[in-house]
Structures are given as C-alpha cells and as structure tokens.
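hey all, quick one before standup. I had two proteins in the batch that finished overnight and I want to keep them in one place so we stop losing track of which output belongs to which input. First protein below, input sequence then structure tokens straight from the run.
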Amino acid sequence: MRRDLRSILAWALLAWTLGTAAPARADPTLHCLWELHGKHNTVYLLGSIHTLRASDYPLAPAVVDAYRSAKSLVMEIDLDELDSAAVQAEMLSSATLTDGKTLHDVLGPDRYARAQALARDAGLDLSLFDQFAPWFAAEALSQLQLMQLGFDPSSGVEMYFLGRARTDGKSIAGLETAHDQLALFESMPLETQANYLVASLEQARDLPKDVNDMVRAWQRGDTRWFETEVKSDLGRDPSVYQSLLVSRNRKWIARIERLLDDDENHLVIVGTAHLVGRDSVIDLLQKDGIAAVQR
C-alpha cells in the first residue's frame, strides 16, 4: 500500500489538468508551454498531464527543447520528497479515516450504495477503500481505472523529466511540499470529499473518451477545450476551486517571479489547470506586467 500511496499522491492534485488560457485558441503549432523573459534568462512554464501512455511519446520538440535549455526543473512538489519515510507516514495518516469510521459511515447507506454500484460498473471495487478518506478513495479509483486504460503515472510528464534531470545532473525543486498538498485534502470537509467521490465515479463511464480528448487537446495546446472542462468540473464547487487552484496559484507567483531574476533558464512544470483561465498563474503574472507567450 505504501507504494500505491506514493504514486497516487504524485499525481492526485497534479492530475487536475483543467482550465483555459487567455487568449484561448487551438493551433497545431502551439503547445501547453509558455515563455517568460527576464533580463538575462527565460522561464518556461509547461502545463502537464500527470499520467500518460508510452504511445503518447515522444513529446513535442518545443517541449523537449525547453527542458534542454533549462538549468533546473521546478515542479509543484519535488517528487523525490515522496521517498521520505516521514512523508510516507504522513500520507498514510492523511488518507486513513479516524475514530473507527469507515467510508460507509461517511457516505451514508444510500450514497455508499450508489458509489458502490458506479464503481462496479467501471470494473472497480469500492470496498477495498472502506478504511480510507473519500478523497483518497476517489483518487485511487481514478488511478486504477486509468491504469486499466493503459495509462501509467510513471509515464507522466513530471516523471519523464524528473528521470532526465537526475541523469543530466540538473537541480530539482518544488513550489510547495507534500505536506502542503496533504493539508489541502485534510482541510476539506468530509461531506465535500464524499460528494467529490460520487461525482468522480459518475464520470467514470465517460473516462475512456474524456481522457483521450484531454491528451489530444494538451498535445495541440487547445486551451478552449480545457476551459470548458474546468467550468463543468471544478467550477461546480467554488470552495474547492479556490483552495485547490486559485490560492495555490497566488502562493506560487512570488517564487516564479524570483526565477526571472536569475542568469540561468528554468523549466517549471505544473498541472495545466494552474496555467490557464482567470486567476491562473499566467493571468496573475500578466497582471504583474509579466508577459507570457504560448509556444
């Protein structure tokens, strides 16, 4: 279970690759990649899909060139941090229900029965997660379904470039810590988590088509597609939208802007949701007078 917890955390928050950029456009020559220019360097912002198939490689030359030009790799979290025994213990604690509660207790009999039926229809077993918080059950079940479709978290964009950065001796850093991400889930009311779990399972039937559409949209830099998705998904719960996206974007801005004072280039990789739409990283940078050019 520890290995499963680690892989789930690595893409749990990261996998919310939804949103739009301004201006929104689809162009076969564009990618979910933006450039910021400091006085002496370039900072590349790459929107990520955190779990891909081997067949989705190779990545676009423009994306690979951005990596080659960069001295350092900056992600939402430093994924090497997940190897820490202390972090793994915190993950297990955060994911597990307390006070003898079960997932059935949190959801209630009617909602649990519906969630169980939806999971069964998707070829998944909800009972495996009866001791876990709804947020973790939702992410774990989604990951299992994606794996059934041939997707692999170890083939995601972050993991691909993390492996290359280790080999190439580039520095690796995070915009926040694993503790920061876990705290977001822990602070989410159980009722909100329960609703999220059911909503996630309701979308499971359409996941095979949706995830293929997402990969194609990402590959062609189709920010308008992402705009529609974020409005239909995260936009349904303003509090979740604010905590998982907007508040984190605002915390990251100062760190990203400091990178522009360097003499070396940097590649920043975050979920596409964070780089698109109103109050996105791109939008907030532009409000600070920093131009971001989509490539």
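OK second protein, same deal, sequence then tokens:
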Amino acid sequence: MKFTKMQGIGNDYVYVDGFSEQVTDPARLAQRVSDRHFGIGGDGLILILPSEHADVRMQMFNADGSEGEMCGNGIRCVAKYAYDHGLARKNPMHIETGRGVLALDLDLAADKVERVTVDMMSPILDLPEIPVDPIEVTPTGRPHEYSFTSRGGKDDLTGVFVSTGNPHVVVFVEDVQAVPLEQIGPRVEHAPVFPRRINAHWVQVHSRSEVTMRTWERGSGITLACGTGACAVAVACILTGRTDRKILAHLPGGDLSLEWRESDNSVYMTGPAAEVFSGEWHDA
C-alpha cells in the first residue's frame, strides 16, 4: 500500500489515496501505522476518498483506531494532496467530512498548495449536541463556563465546551507550560461528563489577539497541534470576553490564524500544509 506522510504545524498523519488504494480495515491500520517505533509514526490515519457530494472525501482515524469526525490540520493536508496530485484541481475546494462539506481556499506557490483557509462552519454550543452531559456540569455564573470533575473525581476544573466538528473543552490557565498534561489529559478525556470522550485544551491568553495553547486529543494523547481545537479555543475566548474575533494561536507545532466572523457565524482557520515523505507499507 502506498502512503504519504503529511503534517500541518506538527499534527502529522499517514495519508492514503483511496482513489488508487483500498483499505479494508482502517481502524486496525491506523493503530499499526501510527506507532512511532514499529510503524510509520503519526497522530493517526487519513483516507482521501471519492465523494458524491464534494471534490473529495476525508475519513480520519485516531492513533488508537477510533474514528473522528474531523481534523482541522488534516483537512488542510487533504486539500494540498488532492490539488498537488491532481485528484481535484479546484480552488476553492470542497471536502466532505464527518462534519459536513467544508469549503477551503488554497494559497498557491509554483502551482503547489502552501497555506489553506478552511471555513469550519458555525460552532456548536448546545451541551447535548457537543456532546456534554448537562447533569454532570455546574454553571459558574460566567457566560458559557461550567465546572466539572475529571475521571475518578481527581480534578476540579472550569471549562468552556464547544464542538467544531469534534467535541472540545477549553480550560484557561495563567501558565500553560505548568499544566501536567500527561497526567491530567487522560483523566479529562475519559471524564463521565463526556459520553464520546473529549479533546482537552489548556490556554494562556496573552492579549486581545494572541493566545498559547496545549492539547490532549482523544485517541491520540499529546499532539503538537489540533486545528478544530484551535477553532474551539477562539470561540471560547470570544464567548468569555477574553479576546477579539481575530486571534493568533501559538501551538507547540506552529501558529494558526483564527477568525470567528459575525457576518456568517463561521470560524475560519488559516495555516500551512506540507508533505514529509512517501513510501510503501507492507503489512506483515
């Protein structure tokens, strides 16, 4: 099976061109190829497939084999692969995801995609739709902020819940580097308040236009970047009055520009996409 390794600000996935390759068990394959010691290494597996509703379809699997609805950094790479390899020479491009069909504007250099702006659509704030169990949270009195406990009741936290195609919780802190992510991340991901688990982000606000964030992704653990999470962070910052509607988010793997527009209520994310290498996977 031929594959291509791609990354968007360090959020790396193994990509398979479903126009020419067939994957019979993507959940198992995701686990094997994602292993950074015995596989190719990555945060998961993304299939680029034909679509009846868009230019191409994206199907993504986390490193543990669980299927995710969307990946913000991943969809930029899908657009780059589809355009650069001639699967869809459209600009703007439309890609079908578990979130719906998204529109992407491509920034080109020498007829290759370098940066992509994604219309991530309107955020979902209704707790059951995210989904968050409303019985397990308590309003703090600040708009859209709730208190909740992690798995086993080990951590008392205050967060903002947002879905941008995937479920997210955003926790604001004074020093994001001081968060013990390896310990607290899995406890939050598997908290009983989240029936489908959660992507958790800790955020330090520097100004009305700049934040730094760190992420624990459900099914993958600590990652260098999370595109849908960065969009959720922008929404949470705006909902709680911490920033303006345009922000720059610093993630461990790089920066994303984010804007939640009042005109159409959509969140727009802009960032790079890059190919790393290609090869063949021989499944033993």
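Flagging for whoever picks this up: The mean pLDDT is 97. Residues 72-84 form the longest helix (13 residues).
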